[in-house]
Amino acid sequence: MRVEEIKKLIKLVEESQIGELEVRRWWGTIRISRNSHSTAPFHGQVIQVPQPAVAPEASSHAAANAPSAKEAKDVETGLHVIRSPMVGTFYRAPAPDADPYVEAGRRVEPGQTVCIIEAMKLMNEIESEISGTIAKVLVENGQPVEYGQPLFHVRLD
Amino acid sequence: MNAGSPLLPFTQETVSAALSAGAFGRPLHFHSLVDSTNSRAVELARAGAPEGTVVLADAQSAGRGRSDRRWESPPGMGIYLSVVLRPPLDAERATFLTSVAALSATAVAGETASVQAEIKWPNDVLAGGRKVAGILAERGGSGATTWVVAGFGVNLNHRRDDFPAALAAKATSLRAEGGAIYCRVRFVALLLERFESDYRAFLEVGPAALLERIRERSAVLGHRIEIHDGARRVQGIALGLDESGGLILGKGKGRETFHQGSIVRIW
Known about the structure:
heterodimer; A: CATH 2.40.50.100; 5-stranded antiparallel β-sheet; 4-stranded antiparallel β-sheet; 12 strands; about 10% helix; elongated; B: alpha+beta; BirA Bifunctional Protein, domain 2; SH3 type barrels; 2 domains
């Protein structure tokens, strides 16, 4: 769905008596609501009128109800685990002869690329969502990884 | 387009004028020489470029294939084009975009040169069993800043001896297969129009909108193949594509579906 289409839907809700409009697509659901507190359970994207905020990331089918599968804090050890958001091949560097994005002992900041996961030939840059220090790299370069598989341990600041 | 159509000069103006009414190609960043259209498009995407932004070059000094393999990109012969996309898809669902791009490129290549162009799962385009086009797709950012860059490299007007010796057995061009010189301006316009329409169909309906067309153009389905997934080399019969475009491989009585890996041999 294009941003223009979403804008049209928002306009539709604004100009009508509708309280809420839900549009389903194969990749997720967008709900446009006049009220900030909706009673119905919902795990997709919520767009509020009149101050819409559009987040293009659809809810993952496998993780819609779970905490972020990509990164989750391991409370017992105090280590943050960066997990693979998908099935694919793990690459530590942008090219075979390039330096790895991160090494153990290296600091990472939110938004910093830590590795690439390739699936169906799409090269996905995986970003850290937290700041800390890489404690351990858990997967070897070029190896297949599963959904949710731990990739890095990060010691939080 | 056919071999009799005139060859327009390859410039920002001619390409802009040839574009269909769609959004892809607006804006158009044309370079006579660039390091890599994908690298430039990634920079633009990170800086907030809108969906449909295109980087197009007559030649690349550091054209990239997958895993940073070099993509030969001399001037005057090929299409080197990268499109910025902003799909509302998570990482797993976005992986089908390489298949979308391969389908669009295969269809336009086949129609342009009246040759049988086929998809080597998931993202290479073959003609006469050799590679005539490749797709390099990259994805980054997060949340509202998520971007995808889909890069196309098409060997259009290369002669056979324009390819380095090491590539001669593996690479071909539409000219070598179809026997004519093709207008790059029209090819770009057709490719962008087709890719935009296939991309929209995918976003609306999902992979199901395109899977039948992808299967019809597959170079591997029904063949015995060998696939290398980083850890293993596996042989089997390519039986089909699953609902997300993964390759179903038959091995004896069992089967396994691949969402990663490269086909290293087709029998």
